[in-house]
Inverse folding.
């Protein structure tokens, strides 16, 4: 199937060799990527094969023990929980973000810009301030409990802060824009003639949505899902702050190995390398599935 | 096309040139900049400003949140710091490995202001390597308007009626230490047997704890999320200052430990002279008062104590009695394997 597509690719302008000017234009990006992505990743992978001393400095003796240690049920359990929390976060972000993105993508010009700015507005303040603001809302003596009490819906304040609920809320809140923006990109490109054509051919709204709109916006959904899932998997600040340090994610364990009592950056690096492997495999699987679909 | 490339190269080389210049300037002025690597929220900005005003020496500050974080950085030889702020047992480690400079005590005459009980402690018997910054301890705070029954120590704090109402500092070694105290064991014996015993105690405590927070545990008290907890004495002192009728400070009957944070000069420091001047400066009574007002830990500076508000001096969390201080233990250094064993135990208990 893919064979019939390939010739078309070759005809396109995309494969023209970039030339000197192209490379020069690209060079800032390449330098940036090499310095701040490729090189640190390389160091992390290297560090994962060494030991550390009492100061948590690397001792250059080759070992695989950091990887065998990951197999400890304790860490496997935490990895499992992190995967579950990241999946839950990404799914909730898609469910909440899709209608929002669809609405923004379909609304007329001026409103579109206002709504897009509203989506990005939270980024104008620091992550920590936004997260601490939730403390004031969720606390026992916070706004939400005060409102529910005065409405008479509850008679005792609810325990909202430092729970699994507050952790998931914090994760979804922080990552929602990353889901909305790529879906919006897909929705905006969606031509309304295609939906109209579906109606003309006898599809009801539900069928038009599942057979036309959804497949055409799928790339945005995949991108949005990954943009939430990947950072959520390594998150540690929200579990520490909103979860009161009671719900550990793999990011917390890694942080402890580098900066805390764990004093073992080699083991932390091995965990980081494993996360990287999980990302690469899941990206590859997604690419595989999408190629099948074509 | 060629012209464009030439322009680009010219611009780039211009950029590189100015970057090199800035770097060279920076290197030059390094002689007048004191680089301090210290705990977050521990050296008031007002003290740093006053030092610069007095001496003309600029101060650059970098922060860490745990002794381990600082050890990792100093151990890796990263950063060129002139002053660090290690706690007692951490200083002992750095000293044993020759990673701190010997002080020239003739340049720090204000060391005489420090109370005798905080000078020449085990980790640095002659204060050859460090001068005290602030001391503190860990103890229990109870909101007496919510908790009507008496609380005297860890054992009767961690009782089911307070489930979900307790906050603790986020520090694995602290948790193990409290458990060892309730068992009547040596807090510096981190053997597998001792950890096993501690684990049994901690298993019953963990489900009762609402949250761990080392940064600002007092916030959870003020928000009404918790009614009791085990926190740093400086945080407790702030709560007592805010509402002395609601919050009560309790020194755990089973025991607790004293910590003393210090200033020291790491090996390889470029600005040893300025570091000495800073040490002597912060030991002045007036400067010590500024530190106490912002961070009400136990000020070891007797001259500063004389200048403090009597209400602050009477704050039991900041100033335990001499008799109480005598009963306090202190942390000794532990090696990487023991630290890792503590880390694994607490990670395990938390992820149940």
């Amino acid at each position: 199937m893919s064979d019939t597509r390939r010739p078309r690719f070759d005809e396109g302008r995309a494969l023209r060799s970039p030339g000197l000017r192209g490379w020069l234009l690209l060079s800032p990006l390449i330098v940036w990527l090499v310095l701040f992505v490729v090189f640190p990743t390389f160091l992390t992978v290297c560090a994962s094969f060494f030991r550390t001393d009492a100061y948590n400095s690397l001792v250059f003796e080759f070992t695989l023990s950091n990887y065998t240690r990951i197999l400890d049920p304790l860490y496997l359990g935490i990895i499992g929980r992190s995967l579950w929390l990241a999946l839950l976060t990404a799914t909730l972000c898609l469910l909440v973000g899709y209608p929002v993105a669809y609405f923004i993508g379909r609304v007329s010009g001026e409103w579109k810009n206002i709504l897009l700015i509203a989506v990005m507005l939270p980024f104008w303040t620091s992550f920590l301030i936004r997260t601490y603001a939730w403390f004031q809302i969720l606390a026992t003596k916070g706004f939400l409990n005060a409102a529910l009490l005065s409405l008479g819906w509850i008679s005792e304040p609810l325990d909202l802060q430092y729970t699994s609920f507050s952790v998931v809320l914090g994760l979804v809140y922080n990552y929602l824009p990353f889901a909305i923006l790529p879906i919006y990109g897909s929705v905006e490109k969606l031509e309304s003639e295609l939906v109209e054509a579906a109606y003309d051919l006898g599809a009801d709204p539900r069928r038009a949505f599942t057979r036309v709109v959804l497949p055409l916006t799928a790339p945005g959904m995949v991108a949005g899902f990954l943009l939430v899932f990947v950072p959520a998997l390594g998150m540690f600040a929200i579990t520490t702050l909103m979860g009161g340090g009671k719900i550990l994610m793999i990011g917390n364990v890694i942080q402890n190995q580098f900066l805390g009592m764990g004093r073992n950056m080699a083991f932390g690096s091995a965990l980081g390398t494993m996360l990287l492997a999980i990302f690469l495999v899941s990206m590859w699987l997604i690419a595989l599935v999408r190629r099948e679909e074509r | 096309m060629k012209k464009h490339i030439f322009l680009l190269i010219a611009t780039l080389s211009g950029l590189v040139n100015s970057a090199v210049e800035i770097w060279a300037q920076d290197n030059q002025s390094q002689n007048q900049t004191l680089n301090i690597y210290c705990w977050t929220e521990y050296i008031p900005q007002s003290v740093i400003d006053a030092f610069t005003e007095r001496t003309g020496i600029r101060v650059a500050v970098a922060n860490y949140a745990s002794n381990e974080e600082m050890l990792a950085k100093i151990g890796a030889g990263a950063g060129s710091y002139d002053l660090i702020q290690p706690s007692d047992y951490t200083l002992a480690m750095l000293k044993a490995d020759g990673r701190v400079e010997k002080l020239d005590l003739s340049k720090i005459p204000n060391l005489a202001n420090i109370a005798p009980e905080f000078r020449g402690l085990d980790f640095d018997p002659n204060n050859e390597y460090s001068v005290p910054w602030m001391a503190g301890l860990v103890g229990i705070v109870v909101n007496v308007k919510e908790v009507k029954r008496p609380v005297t120590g860890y054992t009767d704090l961690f009782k089911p009626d307070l489930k979900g109402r307790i906050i603790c500092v986020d520090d694995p070694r602290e948790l193990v230490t409290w458990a060892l105290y309730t068992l009547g064991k040596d807090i510096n014996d981190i053997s597998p047997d001792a950890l096993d015993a501690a684990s049994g105690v901690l298993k019953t405590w963990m489900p009762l704890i609402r949250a761990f927070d080392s940064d600002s545990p007092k916030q959870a008290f003020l928000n009404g999320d918790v009614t009791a907890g085990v926190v740093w004495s400086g945080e407790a002192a702030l709560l007592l200052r805010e509402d002395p009728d609601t919050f009560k400070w309790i020194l755990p009957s089973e025991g607790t430990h004293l910590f003393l944070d210090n200033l020291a000069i790491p090996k390889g420091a470029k600005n040893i002279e300025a570091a000495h001047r800073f040490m002597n400066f912060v030991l002045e009574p007036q400067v010590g008062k500024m530190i106490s007002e912002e961070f009400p830990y136990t000020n070891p500076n007797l001259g500063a104590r004389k200048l403090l508000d009597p209400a602050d001096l009477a704050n039991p969390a900041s100033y335990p009695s001499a008799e109480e201080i005598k009963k306090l233990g202190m942390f000794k250094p532990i090696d990487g394997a023991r630290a890792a064993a503590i880390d694994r135990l607490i990670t395990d208990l938390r992820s149940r």
About this structure: Residues 69-293 of chain A form a domain with the MetI-like fold fold (CATH 1.10.3720.10). Chain A touches chain B at residues 20-21, 24, 52-57, 74, 77-78, 81, 135-136, 139-142, 157, 159, 161-162, 240, 243-246, 248, 253, 256, 258-265 (CB under 8 Å). Residues 1-12 of chain A have pLDDT under 50 and may be disordered.
